[in-house]
Design brief:
mainly alpha; Arp2/3 complex 21 kDa subunit ARPC3
Length: about 190
């Protein structure tokens, strides 16, 4: 079945190839991913309208970096937060609990889980927790004025359903990307 298929083996072979590079190359790649993520995330505050479509792409660099190396992904996540402090401080409350958390959670799930369903669910749970923290604890209307900032199970269920579908898309995109890396590496 689709959801119970093991998908982490292709990622593991790419990780092994990645570790053959020098530490310097890996750090430079992590810094590059962090800067790309910071620019994508900052676009939401810099470019009104169109920037809100670019901002969710900040998940991709953190996700790819974490899939390659968990410690390097954490470093890129922290570096992206630091860069956002200087580029667009208003995005600093959103990135660590939404797009960044989704990237690091889903990328880390490829290390700990093998099946597609558990990888998708792990990222969806982390994104749901991040959004609920923004809504309930920080009273930040991340979903706009239509969604109340007080806690409700109905809102949490809706957020989880959205997070599951959204993370499913990210998992399939990243898995396809890693399969192509593996295919080009073996040619």
């Amino acid at each position: 079945m689709y959801f119970f298929k093991t998908i982490s083996d292709d990622v593991r072979s790419t990780q092994l190839a990645f570790y053959k590079h020098s530490k310097t190359k890996r750090l430079v790649l992590g810094a590059l991913f962090a800067s790309i993520a910071a620019v994508f995330q900052a676009a939401g505050g810099i470019l009104p309208g169109v920037g809100y479509f670019i901002s969710p792409l900040a998940t991709a660099p953190i996700l790819f970096c974490t899939m390659l190396s968990l410690p390097l992904g954490v470093m890129s996540y922290l570096l992206t937060n630091l860069l956002l402090l200087f580029l667009q401080p208003s995005e600093l409350i959103v990135f660590p609990l939404t797009t960044g958390l989704l990237g690091i959670g889903t990328g880390g799930a490829f290390y700990f889980f093998k099946k597609r369903l558990s990888i998708i669910a792990a990222g969806a749970v982390l994104l749901t927790i991040g959004v609920i923290l923004l809504l309930s604890i920080f009273q930040f209307p991340v979903l706009g004025p239509a969604v109340s900032t007080s806690f409700s199970f109905f809102t949490t269920g809706g957020i989880f359903l959205f997070a599951f579908i959204y993370n499913w898309i990210w998992v399939d995109i990243s898995y396809t990307f890693f399969k192509r890396i593996k295919a080009t590496r073996t040619l």
